[in-house]
Amino acid sequence: MEESVNKKQGGKNVSGIKTFPIEWDLGNTKESNNINTPSQYSKKQLINQAFNYHLKGDISKASKYYQILINQGFKHHSVFSNYGLILKELGKLKEAEKYIRKAIELKPDFAEAYSNLGNIFKDLGKLQEAELLQRKAIELKPDFAAAHSNLGSVLKDLDNLKGAELSQRKAIELKPDFAEAHSNLGSVLKDLGELKEAESSHRKAIELEPNKADAYFNLSIIELLNGDYENGLENYEFRFKKKKPATLNGNPIISKIDNLKFQKEENILVISEQGLGDTLQYMRYIPYLRSKGINVSFCAQTKLHSLIKVSGIDLNPLTPEQSTLVSKGKWIPLLSLPRCLKVKPEKPIITEPYIFSTKELKQKWGKILSKEKRPIIGINWQGSQEMERSSYQGRSFPLEKFSLVAKIHGVTMLSLQKGFGSEQLNNCSFKNKFIQCQKQVDNTWDFLENAAIIDSCDLIITCDTSMAHLAGGMGKKVWLLLRDIPFWTWGLKEKSTFWYPSIRLFRQKERHNWDELMLRVSKALKEEIETES
pLDDT digit string (tens) for 22-63? Predict the structure, then answer.
């Protein structure tokens, strides 16, 4: 998503920021070793220094010069706007908003500032306000390609895909070499199910901007969805070079591995990344590496440690903070292991269950749930809010959608939902269908104990959350309910997955139509119960 257009220096993008320098020549301004003595400079020199560093991408020094100018009472819309962009880059969104609003106050027809403010509101999750601000920027400057593209990004988050497509196409019409808009269009087309054209859009973005990490990453998602794991996993490595890089659950001080082949007796630190579901899915490869004679240390989210130990993944997992204590060998991100091991549907490597609870916990919950009427169906309906707002919209659904399943005679339900979404149980129309000890389950947050609860269920029905990976890794029978264009792990058409042989995939036939999918699920469950009775 583009911030603005900088005509000077060919529209150079510095750290994802496109600036608005005042049209003064930078010249050969002398640099001071101590910028805290601004009396050495005229205001023009200070401005030139600020913009010079900003254009070079040295936002630390640029920020200091902007602050000096602002503290001296210098009032120019570009100074406030550019300083606001730096604050946005640093994640200080509220402060950034204040300075860009000041730029608009100084120049009410400053279209670029309205667009930049819209981008801040988008990051704050205020999408309706963001849309209005982008439309204001376009009203002030109808040929402003970046604002059209930014509007398209907001509309995509608002799930107005057709509107998003039109906005991105308008941006490209105004600026045919606009790599960002081509990549953004590709993301919209992917969600619309137009995968071939989406792939072409990302490739066009790469052609225009060969180092565009976001376009490579977005291309990888399409390749992986289509089952092209060789190219897809290669391009998936760009996830750490995106404008919003993947989160690493650690801060290693050793070097990152620079080859695709592990050597016997080599010391490797594997660091988990992204969410809990990702760790649960890919930690299966840790024991496999160890079986090949590789010395592996595993750094993972603390809340998974008890499960990791009992499952034999790692008897002494490291916390993210302990990753700095490893001083020997090299490190690798957990989700890079499939690339190194050349995993693909025809070569899954690990398909048998690899997640286990303890005998004591299984006995405990087996006894508790033995009092309940069978079959017990464990359900989960809501993923994290953050992913719902960004990269995986529409994967979740309201609990009430399970009402068709609840109507099946003899079914008892068990909620595996934790945190956000679990409040829906209070007003659920089929509340009487849940197990008597539901509150006890609700208060059980430990993954190891939840694995024991899952072990006592007859079937798990869930949307795409960490519970699917937990149950799938245990080899439990799971029915996974997927949106029309799902996360790449699940492919596009199959009814099963090589990742978890015990999982059956139910896919939306129409975007957002969970009712039709639930009708198929309830019918399949009824038939299965009748067959087994």
Answer: 444 434 444 444 444 444 567 777 878 888 888 888 888 888
In angstroms, the CA 218 to CA 375 distance is 42
Residues 318, 325 contacting (CB under 8 angstroms): yes
pLDDT, tens digit (0-9, with 9 covering 90-100), for 382-396 = 988 777 776 678 899
**Contact status, residue 14 vs residue 6, Cβ threshold 8 Å:** no
How would you list the strands of the sheet with 295-299, edge to edge?
295-299, 267-271, 330-333
pLDDT (mean) for 234-241 = 97
Task: Please give the Cα distance from 445 to 470 (Å, whole number).
Answer: 13
- Note if the pTM is more than 0.85: yes
How wide is the angle at C-alpha 407 spanned by C-alphas 404 and 412, nearest 5°? 110
Cα dihedral 311, 320, 271, 490 sign: positive
- The average pLDDT across 179-195 equals 97
Q: Which CATH number fits domain 176-245: 3.40.50.410, 1.10.390.10, 1.10.10.2840, 1.25.40.10?
A: 1.25.40.10
Distance between start and end Cα atoms, the chain = 56
At 308-325, the pLDDT tens digits run 999 999 999 999 999 999
What amino acid is encoded at 52 in this protein?
Answer: N
What order of strands is seen across the sheet that includes strand 496-497?
A: 412-415, 376-380, 459-462, 478-482, 500-507, 496-497
CB atoms within 10 A of CB 141: 18
Q: Is 393 exposed, middle or buried (0-12, 13-18, 19+ CB in 10 A)?
A: middle
- Asked: is 8-175 a CATH 1.25.40.10 domain? The reply is yes
Residue 228 burial by Cβ neighbours in a 10 Å radius (0-12, 13-18, 19+): middle
The answer on pLDDT for 5 being more than 70 is no
- Going by pLDDT thresholds of 50, 70 and 90, the confidence category of residue 473 is very high
Closest CA to 100 of 122, 72, 119: 119
CATH superfamily of 359-532: Glycogen Phosphorylase B; (3.40.50.2000)
Say which residues have a Cβ less than 8 Å from residue 56's Cβ, sequence separation at least 6: 14
Domain residue limits, the chain: 8-175, 176-245, 267-340, 359-532
Q: What's the mean per-residue pLDDT of the chain?
A: 90
- Other CB atoms within a 10 A radius of the CB of residue 40 amount to 11
Residue 414's pLDDT band (cuts 50, 70, 90)? very high
DSSP string, 383-395: --HHHHHTTTTTS
**Res 16: pLDDT:** 34
Contact 522, 405 (CB under 8 A): yes
Count other Cβ atoms within 10 Å, centred on residue 156.
22
- DSSP H or E run through 62: helix 59-71
Of the candidates 213, 273, 274, the residue with the CA atom closest to the CA atom of residue 241? 213
CA distance 490 to 474: 18
Q: Looking at residue 40, what is its pLDDT?
A: 52
Q: Are domains 8-175 and 176-245 of this chain identical in fold? A: yes
